[in-house]
Amino acid sequence: MPPVVSFFSKTQYSSNPLETRDDLAKFLKDLLNPLAAHTSPGGARIQLGYTGTHYDDVAAQLEGFSRPIWGLAALLAGGGEYEGTSRWVNGFKNGTDPESEEFWGDMRDKDQRMVECSAIGFTLAVAKDKIWDPLPDEAKKNLENWLAIMNGKEMPNTNWLWFRVFANLGLSKVGSKRFDAARMKADLDHLDTFYIGDGWSRDGPEGIVQLDYYSSSFAIQFAQLAYSKLMQKEDPERCEEFRNRARNFVKDFVHYWDEEGRPIAFGRSMVYRFAMSSFWGALAFADVELPAPLTWGVIKGLQLRNVRYWANQPGAYNPDGTLTIGYNYLNMNMTENYNSAGSVYWCCKSFVTLALPETHPFWTSKEEPYPEALRGTTKFLSNPLHITTNLGGHTFLLSSGQQCSYPVKQSAAKYGKFAYSSAFGYSVPSGNLTLEELGGDNTLALSNDGGETWKCRRETKEARIVDGRWLQSMWYPWNGVKVETWLIPPAEESPLWHLRVHRIRTNQKLQSAEGGFALFGQQALNGRALEPSSGEDEGILESGNRARATSLAGVVGIAGLEADSRRVGKALRMDPNTNLVESRTVLPTLIGEHSASEKDHWLITGVFGLPSSAFQQHESWLNEWEKKAASLPLSLFRSLVQANAY
């Protein structure tokens, strides 16, 4: 009997091998084609769904129009053709005409319409002959005026400033008198104050500790590289600085990727999916000289494996071929308040390599696997306060110190967890009245009301990397409660385990629930929930102070290692739609109680993770599971006790 999951494992795009420039162009066109049925008569608005956002419906329909042109513009810039291009040309004509019923509306301060100006400016800069030149003179004037409005409007002090830079860049490339050179230079000078070294930029001014994918593929790094290509003659010194930043940044960023082309899911805007790989394409677009061990074959592999992965995820697409809102499947639970059905087409940034000629080394090089020199490594990244590792075939990061500086839905889950994985994703809460709805993977959840409600780490304080060995941080969930945490990466002798140590001092009685990685929780043959199993067969194990789950996705587990551990291991069946990667998951969890006391409560936790894709790297994962106590670096714990105090 074949596995149930095989019945619907193909997408409309699965037959595309995505190996060549022509393959990538076909994938783009196949994504653009279904949009025609959702496009307004005048082409200016694309309506892909009826969901709520913090901005108006017209802005959401503008998103549906503008974001696909990241890909269309690149295709046209590289000499490609698309029969539906006229839809977008007509859309520019009608969307910027104040007399048209499809008018997008003028921009106000901090308007969502500003975001879409980035794609429009890029399009004018790289595809002027196919998009701008066909417009009537009146339409050109309207488009200039509409874009230029933002030069006098207030913008958020974040990566958004790049959107105004690209609006002006586009105006400059079409010779518009509405181009504001002084405004663009002032924005660029201010954006440079976000730079903190080693290639990294914050998503905001000093005091912001948000260094997620907006600092790279989604916005800042991509924008810097595109600018360095398009403004080389006008601004050579700044352009070279941007390329230098990318050369430094890539040495860290490559550690966020696994051998299968998956990045570590972390932070907000996961609905943008393969926009994460647009940085690799932007390196090629900007002709950046690559540092060893990276080659154009390696970069090509990193990007195409990622796009290939997403082309083969059934849950990423609606039946008509349009993208769903979610990550690996339709999931409104994980979205932010700025995610409309059109927002997801930000992923079209990853088609930037279509702007390159066939003779570019990105396309002439043979695709190479993940660099051998970077396998089995652990790296301490001081700027994002991350420790990345792929020891044992599992690519994940340990995190302390990041948090969103403004209200974002489920920010504790998106930034505050201890670990984030490329294979297992992360979970977000569907509520906080039960552990099953909490989505508490890789957290220490605490309750001071007998388990009625739960708190997870959101605002991390005093985070630092200590001696190149571990992450240390503080968390203050309530007055009179302090939690100090050390996160210790895997050791070579126990590559499937990482260690967490928590010191809790509390003036009130607490309950705790610490989760490991969440795992696909169904049986392979019949799709039913996992059943108990104590061996290597798929199933769950609950034994004293440890819990484990095994399925076709891999093996995850957790164990209490404190000498007098009274925590109890449970394999919790989580609420559906909490995890980004799998809609039904099981979460190994340790549950304990802690009295109010002036003395410290010490928790020592071993967390086990092995994706099924790495099974072949280990003779027996069960042996790795059983040897935890002998090989975990508990000597480090003793040094923590001796060297650290509140």
TrEMBL record:
This is DUF2264 domain-containing protein. InterPro entries: DUF2264_C, DUF2264_N, UCP014753. It holds the Pfam family DUF2264. Residues 20-370, 378-634 form the DUF2264 domain.
